[in-house]
Amino acid sequence: METSVDTSVKRCEAWWLGRVAYHKAWQLQNRLADLIAAGKQLPTLLLLEHPPTYTIGRMGNRDHLLLDDQRLAERNLTVVEVDRGGDITYHGPGQLVGYPILPLAPVDWQGGVLGKADFVGYLRRLEACLIDALGQLGVRAIRRDGLTGVWVEENREEDAPAYAKVASIGVKIDSRGITRHGFALNLATDMEYWEGIVPCGLEGVRMTNLVDYIAGATHSMAVLDAIVEAFGRVMGYEMVFSKEPEAGWQRLGLSE
């Protein structure tokens, strides 16, 4: 991972890493971002899940955490303040987390703050990846104006259909134009954890799991393959996907 990489083909490595502690994955993202900025690592998509964790983004409101310290300890929940956009969300077993570490800056980039259009465009492309993948799996998902994330319609028969959020998105783009953080797709999470927060700071929002729409929506290869295929198609990458966590741990330096 310390040698220069061939950039003649727009290629992205994808790694399924299994369960990884939140801070460990965050450190890995930062290290990969440094290597990608230096031309020593291909763009990378990390796929994993976390132990039960609440994360609060830069726009987060601590009041949206509804559990006190005692209840957090009783449920073995960690709270982490992070440098992504957005408010508070939950990560835990039964959720597929994707962290794309990508160079978004143009070739003549001089550093600084990426334009709003580029930032928002990246968010929309992440939503499109998930909507595309869920469509492959037989689930119709949508984006909603003014609400970052991916939603499914709960009741299509009423005049005013209700929507539930199946995926959350929060990202960071650093001064070199390298992305961090990403998306969290609920496959089969314990919904009681969502009751401990105001998800994404949206009062009254209802979270849902993919398993409520298709049977067996766990970390199956079908789900992972759909995500990776859609990511490559929408982002314009040739994907190289490794499905063995042990290989990822060794390649990316995650071993203890």
Task: Describe, in plain words, how this protein is organized in 3D.
- The chain has a single domain, classed as Bira Bifunctional Protein, Domain 2 (BirA Bifunctional Protein, domain 2, 2-Layer Sandwich), CATH 3.30.930.
- The protein has five helices and eleven strands.
- The protein is globular and about 45 Å long.
- The strands form two sheets. The chain has an eight-stranded mixed sheet, sandwiched between helices. A three-stranded mixed sheet has the order 4-3-5, with no helix packed on it.
- Strand 7 and strand 8 form a beta hairpin.
- With 256 residues, the chain is an alpha/beta fold.
SSE topology:
Blueprint: E1 11-19, H1 22-37, E2 44-49, E3 53-56, H2 69-74, E4 78-81, E5 88-91, E6 95-101, H3 116-136, E7 141-144, E8 147-153, E9 163-173, E10 179-186, H4 221-235, E11 238-242, H5 245-252
Parallel strand pairs: 1-2, 1-11, 3-4
Antiparallel strand pairs: 2-6, 3-5, 6-10, 7-8, 8-9, 9-10
Helix pairs in contact: 3-4
